Amino acid sequence: QSFVRTLDDLHGVTHTANLVHQFSSAFDIFIHILRVIDRRIACCLKRDDSDWRLKNACPCCSYKVRSILSISYPSASLFTFRNSAKYPLAITRKLLDILGHNLGIGYDIGCAFCATLRRTCLAHDVQSKNLRYFCGVFHGFAHNRLCQLQHLARNIEGCGYEDFETCERVFSASNHLAPLTRYASPYHRKEAIDAHFRLWDSEKYRNLGTQTSGLFHGQY
Ligand SMILES: [Zn+2]
Ligand SMILES: [Zn+2]
């Protein structure tokens, strides 16, 4: 609304509610056109497969290192699901199917979840594909010493600098959307969240090069 008021001022037009609607619709159509173009490009590049994103989320993380325990997807941090193990179990199934062997997954209660996993039909795959559950360093320090020795990312060889608390950072950033989307329509809320994460992705991707070269030059 304030943006439309500024435009009205610049053009010397009297502000009316009607103009806000017109601008909002034009903006929605513009965003929609961008999405359609994105989808067509993804289709041409054969990136429209539903698992493509999961497989190609991060070139650094999915890079396989020989001779050390390679963690194919360290950023697979899960957050706590209230009273229900079905979501983390479904996610585990998907990650095992798509990413395969030697996976490390961070979960606030990764230690307790291991016991749950052993009692499910996933138990065999978890063992044969060497999947391990870790506790993130933020939550893990609240667990007992024995748990920390087995599950705390800081004590596990192969985890590198990963703290398995990516979700906390994701939520911390996306929380800023709340005041903007509180009174928005469901459509505009989704649009804002989608725009936020597209920007987040592109910024992270852009920073990968700088960060990786920093690692090799000992700046971390
Ligand atoms: Zn990564
Ligand atoms: Zn624990």
Measure the end-to-end span.
44 Å
What oligomeric state is this?
single chain
Uncertain stretches of 5 or more adjacent residues? 67-75
- Mean of all residue-level pLDDT scores: 83
Word description of this protein:
With 220 residues, the chain is mostly helical. It has 3 domains: 1-48, no CATH class; 58-164, no CATH class; 165-220. Helices cover 57% and strands 4% of the residues. The chain is built from 11 helices and 3 strands, in the order αααβαβααβααααα. Strands 1-2-3 form a 3-stranded parallel beta sheet, with helices on one face. Mean pLDDT is 83; it is low at 67-75. Residues 111, 135, 143, 147, 151 line the site of one zinc ion.
Describe the structure using short key phrases:
220 residues; three-stranded parallel β-sheet; binds zinc ion; 11 helices
Protein topology:
Elements: H1 2-11, H2 17-44, H3 52-55, E1 77-78, H4 86-99, E2 104-107, H5 110-118, H6 123-128, E3 132-134, H7 137-140, H8 145-151, H9 166-174, H10 178-181, H11 186-216
Parallel strand pairs: 1-2, 2-3
The structure holds zinc ion (2 copies).
